[in-house]
Write a structure and sequence with these properties.
The complex is a heterodimer of chains A (309) and B (137). With 309 residues, chain A is mostly helical. Chain A contains 12 helices and no strands. The longest helix of chain A is centred in the middle third of the chain and has 31 residues. Chain A is globular. The N and C termini of chain A lie far apart (44 Å). Chain B is an alpha/beta fold and 137 residues long. Chain B has a single domain, classed as 3-Layer(aba) Sandwich (Rossmann fold), CATH 3.40.50. Helices cover 37% and strands 15% of the residues of chain B. The longest helix of chain B is centred in the middle third of the chain and has 13 residues. The chains are: A mainly alpha (309), B alpha/beta (137). Chains A and B meet through helix 3 and helix 9 of A and helix 1 of B.
Chain lengths: 309, 137
């Protein structure tokens, strides 16, 4: 019991993921600044933002809305992100092997933050938040099928292993999945799914700062907004970690933790560069992109896997 | 300066309210976020929603229609909130001070923490004002 609580709150759990995610968020902002020839924020900037929102600012409840649901949704988002991260990081760090079928649990828990953003923004009663929530729903419908197909392809490639730890072991005893043609196709699809899950720029219609004034988060202020930022930091850490576990060999014991860090930072760098070199697409274009092209890519990868490539 | 205060000063998020402005101050404010001046190195971001704002940046002469909206924004913002009046129009009324529709400079309507005069103020002047504001106790 005590060790479970330690896992949830301290080491691979809330505290560790929050710190790692904050540093990755700083990395994302710094790279963005360097791409635009700016100097960029200091290293501890995400911590300043978080503690300012948590400790200093006041919370304002919308007048026409459900206050209870509005305040509960950010906590649900943090909970979902932490649980998903726990199930990803425990097998990744070789602490525990998990259970049979945990990859499906991870898949469901990873959608929990997006759903709680939708619930919270609809509970605020703001019309711009409602537009943002409807866009987020359409985005979820678009990318979830691709993400599920990608996970299914990885399961197929590892020889019907429904367990994240067995998938990592199958790669460590053989070659990493990204070393094959189908693995590269799955990696491309996975990176775009992560981009949409994090609502980064080509797919940031839910928050659309220019037209919806930060959309689904528009009514949040103070501590609830700090919780939303925390959930976003955690998601920025665990989604690349999940991709590393699925396709890129996970972590061998010993000094290889440096490789693990480099892989995660590399994926975040890729996401940041995509975010900085693309304009925002319309929701219809995003749906078409995922439902037609990305699904086609993953289906081609599945066919290649069936032929053993 | 305590920990809470330090975090607040290091992470000022700015909401920009333009009154009946001639747009020169708006252009200079946007200049502060460009690569040459880069206010993000002080942790300053431009936000789209008043609920996320720590600084309310007001420029332009405030006429009778703007006055209600400015008051509404001030009441909707989560406190603590710093208010900065930018430009001659925001500080005193400038050449519009005698105007028929003029509803008073910003400090007649809401309390102001910092004044940055100039018509328009240079980006360097705006940065100097922001840094003084962040160091103010």
């Amino acid at each position: 019991m005590a060790v479970n609580l330690f896992w949830f709150f301290i080491f691979p759990g809330l505290l560790f993921m929050a710190v790692a995610g904050s540093l990755l968020s700083w990395f994302d902002r710094k790279i963005t600044a360097r791409v635009q020839f700016r100097k960029g924020p200091p290293l501890l900037q995400p911590f300043y933002d978080f503690f300012k929102l948590l400790l200093v600012k006041e919370t304002i409840l919308p007048k026409h809305g459900s206050g209870f649901v509005f305040l509960l949704a950010p906590l649900l988002a943090v909970f979902g992100a932490t649980m998903a991260g726990l199930f990803i990081l425990l097998p990744l760090f070789n602490i525990e092997t998990g259970f049979r079928g945990d990859i499906i649990v991870i898949f469901y828990l990873l959608t929990l933050p997006s759903f709680s953003y939708i619930i919270g923004s609809l509970a605020s009663g703001n019309p711009l938040a409602a537009v943002g929530a409807s866009r987020e729903m359409k985005l979820i419908i678009s990318y979830e099928l691709t993400f599920l197909l990608m996970v299914a392809a990885v399961i197929l490639k590892s020889g019907q292993q429904f367990n994240l730890n067995s998938i990592i072991e199958a790669q460590q005893s053989g070659t990493p999945f990204i070393g094959s043609i189908s693995g590269v196709l799955l990696f491309i699809a996975g990176v775009f799914c992560i981009q949409a899950k994090l609502a980064l720029v080509p797919f940031d219609m839910p928050e659309a700062e220019a037209e919806l004034a930060s959309g689904i988060y528009i009514e949040y202020s103070g501590p609830p907004y700090a919780m939303i930022r925390l959930a976003k930091y955690i998601m920025l850490f665990i989604l690349p970690a999940f991709l590393v576990a699925l396709l890129m060999n996970g972590m061998n014991p010993g000094i290889n933790i440096v490789w693990l860090i480099l892989k995660i930072v590399g994926i975040v760098l890729l996401l940041t560069l995509i975010r900085n070199t693309n304009p925002r697409v319309k929701i219809k274009q995003a749906s078409r992109f995922f439902l037609v092209w990305m699904n086609l890519l993953v289906v081609v990868a599945i066919v290649l896997i069936a032929f053993g490539l | 300066m305590g920990f809470k205060d330090y975090c607040f000063r290091k992470s000022l998020w700015v909401f920009h309210f333009g009154g009946a402005s001639c747009n020169n101050c708006d252009i200079e404010i946007l200049d502060c976020l460009t690569p040459r001046h880069d206010l993000e190195r002080f942790g300053i971001l431009l936000v789209g929603s008043i609920r996320h704002a720590d600084v309310l940046l007001v420029n332009g002469s405030i006429n009778r229609r703007d006055k209600d909206r400015l008051l509404e924004l001030y009441h909707q913002a989560p406190k603590p909130l710093l208010v900065v009046a930018i430009g001659a129009c925001g500080c005193t009324g400038g050449i519009f001070a005698e105007g028929m529709t003029f509803a008073g400079p910003v400090d007649k309507i809401i309390p102001v923490d910092a004044y940055i005069p100039g018509c328009p103020p240079k980006p360097e002047a705006i940065i100097a004002g922001i840094v003084k504001l962040a160091g103010k106790k």
